[in-house]
């Protein structure tokens, strides 16, 4: 079918996009067909400017070739280009997903408890040997056979056997190492359950661990998350100094203290020089104390090397410059100074301002990336561009259309995705419920017949996003509620939303449903 015809045909309800056969074809071969549909609607709407990218795109396709088959090839190539993020975006998104999965796993592992010492935590660094660990587990099996308690002995032997069986799946330790947790845990209802979890971390893990306990040990996994670059901040003014760090999206105040320095004045007469000397002495002592504390907080005593990747000096007076040029300031820290910034405040407000003013230098820190991302989202809302969406239902609608460019979700979003089936009619439906809605049995009954719906599948919505986001051609960003913007996004917008590729009115798509669009062709 000619591409020109397909985008110009229309019916009373709006613009007809494809014939029924073409619609079915695109529905079967591409999960992004709704994106294509929305793209053509916007491109051919009366309000669309002829120079908009979407109209320009359609003109490119039409002018490229008069052959319908050739137009179709170009159309599909452009579809792939528009609905697939770049390799860099994909890499960053995959890394964010891996970090989220590790956080989720740590939370579940830390909550698990067992009877006796039947829970094994095993971590192998990249260059370790599977044969060595297998031999060690064999020795442990012999030792565990001497445990007097029959129940505990069986649990420990069962856990060691599970670990041995799982290690048989590996010929060698993966490049990033191997993490294995196995054992018998006690569920919330008091029943025992065997679990075995093994995976390769998303970055090399340097720890080596083997422990049998009544809990899983996750300290090494937490270190994986903490390995982001850490930056030190010294906020210094005439009232006191604050020492802090910024790592990933975590800001931490290490220490702060206040001072009472004498001000300049014209009094004193013959004692004016003595007063000035006392004032300079107190300033000198203040700078010396700050320099000593900086060494204490930012130099690792075991390695005698800085424990931060960079240092930012901030303040509202000349103290920061005086500190950076002082002989009392540790030369190892002087080499780490990335920026000296002027701030209007001291204390924690000055700390926040220093982070914002150093955004360019700290561009790779997640805290800054998160503030910028949500700031961009709020800007779309404040300007009412129509290129934003929030709430579970509307976000999922635009996602299915392929209109979402950046999908933003709170990393602790507590919503589950249910696949429900009406056993009477055979109809299968997808519903999304939070904890409160899950407790309401009305949500699991048919609204018309009151028939109880059968739960076929239950999955965390976050997990579903992590598995399926690529199909919709968007990038997935997890945010926290630790920044002011993140907290506002979670409280005010439900912790889920997106930035769209183009302006879209969700209500118009509710009216222009698929059934209405094609009912006359059936």
Automatic annotation (TrEMBL):
<feature type="domain" description="eRF1/Pelota-like N-terminal">
    <location>
        <begin position="90"/>
        <end position="226"/>
    </location>
</feature>
<dbReference type="InterPro" id="IPR005140">
    <property type="entry name" value="eRF1_Pelota-like_N"/>
</dbReference>
<dbReference type="GO" id="GO:0016149">
    <property type="term" value="F:translation release factor activity, codon specific"/>
</dbReference>
<dbReference type="GO" id="GO:0005829">
    <property type="term" value="C:cytosol"/>
</dbReference>
<dbReference type="InterPro" id="IPR005142">
    <property type="entry name" value="eRF1_3"/>
</dbReference>
<dbReference type="GO" id="GO:1990825">
    <property type="term" value="F:sequence-specific mRNA binding"/>
</dbReference>
<dbReference type="InterPro" id="IPR042226">
    <property type="entry name" value="eFR1_2_sf"/>
</dbReference>
<dbReference type="Pfam" id="PF03464">
    <property type="entry name" value="eRF1_2"/>
</dbReference>
<dbReference type="InterPro" id="IPR005141">
    <property type="entry name" value="eRF1_2"/>
</dbReference>
<dbReference type="Pfam" id="PF03463">
    <property type="entry name" value="eRF1_1"/>
</dbReference>
<dbReference type="InterPro" id="IPR004403">
    <property type="entry name" value="Peptide_chain-rel_eRF1/aRF1"/>
</dbReference>
<protein>
    <recommendedName>
        <fullName>eRF1/Pelota-like N-terminal domain-containing protein</fullName>
    </recommendedName>
</protein>
<dbReference type="GO" id="GO:0018444">
    <property type="term" value="C:translation release factor complex"/>
</dbReference>
<comment type="similarity">
    <text>Belongs to the eukaryotic release factor 1 family.</text>
</comment>
<keyword id="KW-0648">Protein biosynthesis</keyword>
<dbReference type="GO" id="GO:0002184">
    <property type="term" value="P:cytoplasmic translational termination"/>
</dbReference>
<comment type="function">
    <text>Directs the termination of nascent peptide synthesis (translation) in response to the termination codons UAA, UAG and UGA. Modulates plant growth and development.</text>
</comment>
<keyword id="KW-0341">Growth regulation</keyword>
<dbReference type="InterPro" id="IPR029064">
    <property type="entry name" value="Ribosomal_eL30-like_sf"/>
</dbReference>
<keyword id="KW-0963">Cytoplasm</keyword>
<dbReference type="Pfam" id="PF03465">
    <property type="entry name" value="eRF1_3"/>
</dbReference>
<dbReference type="InterPro" id="IPR024049">
    <property type="entry name" value="eRF1_1_sf"/>
</dbReference>
